[in-house]
Amino acid sequence: MVKILAILTLRNEAAFLLEWLAHHRAAGITDFLVFSNDCQDGTDAMLNRLDEMGLVTHVRNDGPYGKGGIQFTAYKLAEKHPLMEAADWVMTLDVDEFVNIHCGTHRITDLISALPEATAITLTWRLFGNAGIVRYADTPVTDTFLRAAPVVMHWPWRAAMFKTLYRNDGTYTKLGVHRPRQPDPARVGQARWFDGEGRELDRKFATGRVFSNYGQSNYALAQLNHYALGAMESYVLKAARGRAVHSDHMLDLDYWVERNFNTDMDRSIQALSQPMQAELEWLKSDPDLSRLHDEAVAWRKTRFMELMLEEPYRALFGRLLTTPPSRPVSQDAARFLTQFANLGRQARRD
């Protein structure tokens, strides 16, 4: 059996964890190495129970943290973990990212079989917008948020960022947020990278790129559904938690506007809806997991009410209510922006 390892870092996201786990078990991930830190909603307790059941391996990441912060400290721990050594393929993910395979039976092994020569496969984000949903509800993310950015985006480049499914063959020795790092000089020359359309990528992807070429489709074989916003209430909680890599930076409207695209309907992830629902029902049949999930849902609702008593979060919520969905930038406008980005890079070199 091909062993596919997902590495995940979590804080206060127990209300979403069971759906995420159910989906990725249905998608064919075999092992989950999950790090938690500073949880108030029972995420760590839920992970302990899942660990007892043999479904994930939970590692507490309580610090101290290196200069890379919480996430990179977790990755350094993961690099030394036995699950990493045993894995055939590895991918770092966040709980708001859902692997969405379009080929075969919609499992990750189908993607690997479609690209048998690949050292690494990029799964480009498809940004799923808020769709005007204000109140947080305990319903599956993949059933709630169905509106997304268009297949072809010309701006911003963040809309074309990817996560990497890569072969754990020693070509890369360090984990990264978007791609494996620290390539072995003796091996990287033979590395072959392919995108979600099945196209072989040029050499710069083997050593440095973190986003796909924009202005084209990148999703024919696979995409990564990115539910970065959620309901407006959930976004207020996300803002209070801080950015994933820079946790001391509060999220604001800039993050929201660059991700709130709702032009297209995309139900493709529901190709795995039946096996995901079966997995989810099985997980919730465990009394401890069911209780912990319900407690996490209640915590989110209480936490939102607490935050709304503070002016920065009340103001943010008001801005979310008044901000319309983001409008995709035209190709001509994107070219105008890109020329200044290129000029800026050239000026820094000079």
TrEMBL record:
The keyword Transmembrane applies. It holds the Pfam family Glyco_tranf_2_4. InterPro entries: Nucleotide-diphossugar_trans (IPR029044). Its main location: membrane. Keywords: Membrane, Transferase, Transmembrane, Transmembrane helix. It is a single-pass membrane protein. It comes from the Bacteria. Coiled coil: none annotated. It is found in: Membrane. One of its GO terms (molecular function) is glycosyltransferase activity. One of its GO terms (cellular component) is cytoplasm. This is Glycosyltransferase family 92 protein. It comes from Thalassovita mangrovi.
